[in-house]
Amino acid sequence: MSSKSLRVPDYLGHMLQAIDRIQAYTNMVPKEAFMQSTQLQDAVVRNIEILGEASRNVQLHGPELVAQHPDIPWSALYAMRNRISHGYWSVDLDTVWNVVQRELPTLRVQIHTLVSQMQA
Predict the structure, then answer these.
(1) PANTHER family recorded for this chain (predicted)?
(2) Is there a catalytic annotation at residue 86?
(3) Burial of 69 from C-beta contacts in 10 A (0-12 / 13-18 / 19+)
(4) Residue 77: which of 9, 33, 26, 11 has the closest Cα?
């Protein structure tokens, strides 16, 4: 087992931390306020980048774990990170908002459950 594969729990922790930060930043914030605040947008987008990068590290260093949990959108998280990082001048804030509101709550439960199972 490589040292990188031993870090898979760390990467999952990074994913949880990024989700928790996004949720803390956007909790009780209406969409209009998000759309008007470049500081909030930057904070959320940065943590989406972290989430996607950590997801990619799990894919690379824990492929067996990824295969056991196909319900987690590992590749989609990395793809969104790439779209944001490489297309930074044209980030679709409506899409970002929708992901934060619709997808992250479920993803948080999935990752938290996975971390809890690994610790048991």
Answers:
(1) RNASE MJ1380-RELATED, UPF0331 PROTEIN MJ0127
(2) yes
(3) middle
(4) 11
Please spell the DSSP secondary structure of 66-91, one letter per residue. HHH-TTS-HHHHHHHHHHHHHTGGG-
- 14 catalytic? Reply is no
Q: Which residues contact 84 (CB under 8 A, 6 or more apart)?
A: 45, 48, 49, 52, 91, 96
Tell me: the pLDDT tens digits for 25-35? 999 999 999 99
Contacts (Cβ under 8 Å, ≥6 apart) of 47: 18, 19, 21, 22, 25
Residues 23 and 108: beta-carbon distance below 8 Å: yes
Exactly one of 14, 56, 61, 81 is catalytic; name it.
81
Angle at the Cα of 93 from the Cα atoms of 44 and 20, rounded to 5 degrees: 25
Residue with tokens 């799990």: 58
Q: CA Rg, the chain, in Å?
A: 15
Q: How far apart are CA 53 and CA 81, in angstroms?
A: 7
